[in-house]
Amino acid sequence: MRIVNLTKETKQNLLENLLKRSTNDYGDYEKTVADIIENVKTRKEEAIFEYSLKFDKCLTTKENFMVTRAEIDEAYTQVDEQFINVMKTSAANIRTYHEKQKRNSWFDAKEDGTILGQKITPMQTVGVYVPGGKAAYPSTTLMNVIPAKVAGVPNIIMTTPAGADGKVNPATLVAADIAGVDTIYKVGGAQAIAALAYGTECIPKVDKIVGPGNIFVALAKRAVYGHVSIDSIAGPSEILVLADESATPRYVAADLLSQAEHDELASAILITTSTELAKKVSDEVDKFVEVLERKAIIQESLNNYGYILVAQDMEMAIDAANEIASEHLEILTKNPFDTMTRIRNAGAIFLGEYSSEPLGDYYAGPNHVLPTNGTAKFFSPLNVDDYVKKSSIISYSREALEKVHQDIELFATKEGLTAHANSIRVRFEEK
Question: Catalytic positions, please?
Answer without folding.
Answer: 327-328
